[in-house]
Amino acid sequence: MATVHPSACIDGDVTLADDVVIGPGCVITGRPGPVRIGAGTVLRAQVHIEGPCTIGERNTFYPCTSAGFPPQDLSFDPALPGPGLVIGDDNTFREGFTAHRGKTQQPTRIGNGNYWMANSHIGHDAVVGNRCIIANGALLAGHVEMADRVVVGGNATIHQFVRIGEGALISGLTGNSKDLCPWFTLTAINVAGSINVIGLRRAGASAQRIDAVRWVYRTVCRQGLTVPRALERLRERAGDPTVAEYIAFISASTRGILTARGRGSDQPKSGARAGVRAGGDGDGE
User: Fold this and answer.
1) Distance (Å, rounded) from C-alpha 35 to C-alpha 33?
2) d(Cα 50, Cα 48) in Å, to the nearest integer?
3) Alpha helix locations (H) across 192-240?
4) How much is the pTM?
5) 160 within a domain of the structure (yes/no)
6) Is residue 102 included in any domain, yes or no?
């Protein structure tokens, strides 16, 4: 049977697995939709959950977190359930984290093994993969799509409908309004200044895969090509599985692809502004 502190309030259609722990001051409201919380999940204190919300196993919610509340959209009726919020397994949500439920056809989704630091936020209809780290104060707007192993620095902001590829690194105090390719590093606002070599190595990437990512980065970001022209170059090596991943990612973009050109400039950035060493190739080492 779940352990529920006497000061907690549970109301409506709420189902708790047998070993769930609900700490003091928590509020779980199974309205306007149901709440389901899986085995091993702990709500430490003063956590607020509203349905529809499905939470998997072994998640930990720290004080003053909230999940499943209505989107921050003036046109959305908060009395409507919408498609809700779905959270996977083994996630950690630190103090002040907020997640809003979806408002379209698909729920807001968070995968497995993610670490959300204090005051981070995921907006309605956003989708986050697995093993991501989102630092303090980082904000994901509505409809953002984030793949696995992404690292987002403190107080970074991601625009609505933007896609973040696998293993990308977003530096703190930056932001992007265009898509960031897999394993690229955002070093300034809308500047893909390097690649995440350390992340690639930690993920077990081979030397051949790292070389392929370097080649793609230089082709897309460092040769002064337009994105369509760079895509043509990539297609010349479409037989390489790594290059093929980038072709698919870039081809699917609707917001545009970030390169080493910053907002308001038609020339590649250089030096410290783009996070590149003097004489380096911007590969993040």
Assistant:
1) 7
2) 7
3) 197-202, 207-217, 227-235
4) 0.91
5) no
6) yes
CATH of the domain at 130: 2.160.10.10
How many residues does this entry show for the chain? 285
Q: Which of 48, 100, 121, 124 is catalytic?
A: 124
Residue numbers of the domain that contains 257? 202-274
240 is catalytic: no
Split at pLDDT 50, 70, 90, the class of 263 is: low
Is the backbone peptide bond immediately before 52 cis, with ω within 30 degrees of 0?
yes
Contacts 24+ apart (CB under 8 A), 156-159: 156/186, 159/255
Is there a cis peptide before residue 32, judged by omega within 30 degrees of 0?
Answer: yes
Which pLDDT value is given to residue 39? 98
Distance, in Å, from the CA atom of 157 to the CA atom of 66, rounded to the nearest integer, reads 19
What per-residue confidence (pLDDT) applies to 234? 98
Residue 187's φ and ψ, nearest 5 degrees, are -105, -15
Residues 131 and 206 in one domain: no
Question: Hey, what amino acid is at 185?
Answer: T
142 tagged catalytic: yes
CA distance 227 to 250: 8
The tokens describing 231, both together, are 């895509």
- Per annotation, catalytic residue among 142, 165, 167, 284: 142
Number of domains in the chain: 2
Contact 180, 165 (CB under 8 A): yes
Per DSSP (E only), the strands in 143-217 are: 145-146, 151-152, 157-158, 163-164, 169-170, 175-176, 184-188, 191-195
Q: Give the active site residue among 30, 56, 68, 125.
A: 125
CA 10 to chain CA centroid, nearest Å: 30
Task: Based on the residue annotation, tell me whether 275 is a catalytic residue of this protein.
Answer: no
Tokens standing for residue 88: 């996977």
Answer whether 188's CB lies under 8 Å from 195's CB: no
Q: Which of 243, 253, 178, 248 lies closest to 217, judged by CA? A: 243
- 262 confidence band (pLDDT: 50, 70, 90): low
